[in-house]
Amino acid sequence: MSSPLLEVEGLRKSFGGVSALRDGRFRLERGSVHAFCGGNGAGKSTFLKIVMGILPRDGGTIRLNGRAVSFTSPRDALAAGISIIEQELSPVPAMTVAENVFLGREPVGLFGRIDFAKMNAATSDLMDRLGFSIAPTALMMDLTVAQVQLVEIAKAISYDAEVIIMDEPTSALGEAEADHLFEAIKVMKNEGKGVIYVSHRLTEIFGVADTYTVLRDGAFVEEGRIEDIDKTRLVELIVGRPLTEEFAKGNKPQNEIVLKVEGIDAAHGVRDVSFELRRGEILGFYGLMGSGRTEILERIFGLSPDSVAGRITIEGRNLAARAPRDAIRAGLALVTEDRKGSGLVMTQDVRANACLARLEKLQASPLMMSTSAERDAARRVIDLFGIKTASDRLGVSNLSGGNQQKVVLGKWYLTEPRILLLDEPTRGVDVGAKREIYQIVSDFASEGGAVILVSSEIEEVLGMADRTLVMRDGRVAGILDGAEMTAPALLHLAA
Amino acid sequence: MTDRTDPARTDPQPSPAAAHGPTSARARAVERLQRYGIFLALVVVCLALTALNEFFLTPRNIVNVLRQTSINGILAIGLTFVILARGIDLSVGSVVALAGVIAASLATTSSGAAVAGGPYPVAVALAAGIAVGAACGAASGAVVARFNVPAFVATLGMLSAARGLTLLYSEGRPVPALTDEFRWIGTGDLFGVPMPVVLFIAVFLASWWVLGQTRFGRHVYAAGGNPHAATVSGINVRRIRFAVFVISGALAGLAGMILAARTGSALPQAGVAYELDAIAAVVIGGTSLAGGVGRVTGTVIGALLIGVVNNGLDLMGVESYYQLVIKGLLIVAAVMLDQTRNQRD
To answer: Where is the stretch described as Disordered (chain B) (predicted)?
Structure first.
């Protein structure tokens, strides 16, 4: 019997006396895609970091092709045939696509000059093979987030490694781009490589993976073949308890229009956007990456002061937000798609982040903050949204993605908004926390709030939205209602 | 705070937060040690100097150290605001000189250097010096906040321009013969405490209040920690960026006048390279050059540590050239300690 490609047993790791990984196990066979599942904080990242040699382990064995290995750096792992697509993108913005793909292993010619022609040609071949249409000479900073992610994927694949770890590879991709990736994965599978696939999107796992391993609270739970399990059971294994339903939706749109947008423009060529949002309604925004959904939210929220065309009316009053503070005053709140980049101040604690948009109401006098009011506000948010944190003074960087997102929601809850603009609110959030966020959104709408929900996950839009506006190339491609709102219809309008 | 930590810790399933947060008593002790490490370093250095030199722990010498530290301390406090907001101010040394000569020209009895109608009351001179400093800060701040020029570049320009203006204004000559009233802020005392030290303490307390207790302070930390998130949360980040430079400039103006008052005349070449010691104090005090992290208390301790080390080396008769080398090592060592802490996090 031949040994598996990668076999990990009894992996242990603790940080400062707290165990993050108690029993990590994994078996990856050649020519297979193995889904690695678990909630945020289950220990997946720790596990992968140990395999890649980024973290040392406290115990356990890792065997590659039957041989025990112990890497001390990602470089070692790469040399032995394991490459990784990391969740956090790390491009060098001022370099070209080809320079990024060949970073650290540039082909050199005479006198150590980099052979640009060779590098560009090789990159071009690679992109063709994967079906990605990205020019090798384009600068990384000119690419969309989705394209940057595709380049990182291409780079990881170009190492020709035997084991490829993909950690949330589709987090920035639209459906069409994700399909390209899945095609590429099939090719790698046929070449006999092993892929470890990490994703919170269960539909993807069922589409692409052959086998699964579930990790919970730092320990191995179960492994098996994807065809022997269904979605409900897998979610139960990940969360550790039966989940009643994936989505939570109890709101009912009323007749009163709270937000009316007429013919506005926005950054990146978005033009002539009109729609209405009713009290109690969740309006979905669907579209591919770069179709202009985020830009519309930013325009409404006062983040693109250069766009002036059109009219925005909130509850009958004209809104011309020149900065977010005007929009906040008018009753708007924006949860941005980039939690670390523009949602949270990662250097600060839960309390400071929760209170950030509400400081003027938490003062004892104009010259002094009220520490007790800040503390009470933060604790109210923690209790209300069930944020798992040791204290309101813990740095937000220590929280899991789902809990960080709840802090962002809590920050806006404190401003008592009437309209919530949500941009990919469940990206990088595990199944359990996702459902809690849906509940928060649904409750908000039920209590008379109105919500715009931007999402690239079609199930999320179908499960949560009352109506869906579909964007294509900066224009409204259509607004679907009730029975018209189906996955094929949304995809058709978007592409 | 304690009522919240306990239920979370008795949770049978380790929460994801607990996996990284300092939970064990030992981890907390280590964290506390690192947080107060700079203070401990100051205490250790003081104890060592007390053992090595009989003059170190005399009231007279202690007052001396404080007086020598006060100018750098005031500059460093101003820089703490700027650095917390993710900026840097390289111009404070030049602003010291410019504010010094302008204020002095309003408070001199020498007919050659005086502004017509002088000497003016000390309050006028003081107000002018602070206003000049604030104006320099406002100019840098406007360039940074309005035109998105990196603070390093904007204040490098101000470093040169303010020095040039100083030399133009004073025609390259010192402004001598300051009035006794003006000299009092440098040489006088209040209940036995030298005025520079009184002002240093006052600036420290005011800054501690502003950064720790006011909405403006919260905004400074947020604007430095993540300007995007601060903007989205409704904070006017440009205004904050502008304001921190005004504060830094005004405090540099104050420091310039203290310096002139202490020496009795304002020198156009005063304050050269003062920004370096001030930045060193901020950095040693644990404030991150990346912005958003740090405390003004740390800065004051950092300034005191530099002052004590200089004083101790003086007392032991160490040549001043060696002192520079030792100071350099101290700066780098302090930041290295800080880095190892960050990496462990």
So the answer is: 1-23
Q: Which A positions 285-344 lie with beta carbon below 8 A of chain B?
A: 301, 303, 323-325, 327-328, 334, 336, 338, 341-344
ipTM: 0.79
- What is the rounded end-to-end Cα distance, in angstroms, of chain B? 22
The CATH number of the domain holding residue A41 is: 3.40.50.300
Whether residues A350 and A486 fall in one domain: yes
Rg (CA), chain A: 24
A165/B196 Cα distance (integer angstroms):
62
DSSP 8-state assignment for residue B112: T
Q: With cut-offs at 50, 70 and 90, classify the pLDDT of residue A171.
A: confident
- Using the Cβ of A370 and the Cβ atoms of chain B, whether some distance falls under 8 Å is answered with no
A444 and A416 in a single domain? The answer is yes
Burial A19-43 (b: 16+ CB within 10 A, else e): bbbbbbbbbbbbebbbbbbbbbbbb
What does the block give as tokens for A415? 């401003």
Using pLDDT thresholds of 50, 70 and 90, give the confidence band for residue A430. confident
Domain B41-344, what fold? ABC transporter involved in vitamin B12 uptake, BtuC (1.10.3470)
Answer whether B98's CB lies under 8 Å from B166's CB: yes
- Per the CB < 8 A criterion, the answer to whether B106 and B95 are in contact is no
The Cα B220–Cα B235 span in angstroms is 10
Cα–Cα distance measured from residue A414 to residue B205, given in angstroms and rounded to the nearest whole number: 31
Min Cα separation A360/chain B (Å):
7
Q: Do residue A204 and residue A264 come from a single domain?
A: no
Is the pTM above the cut of 0.90? no
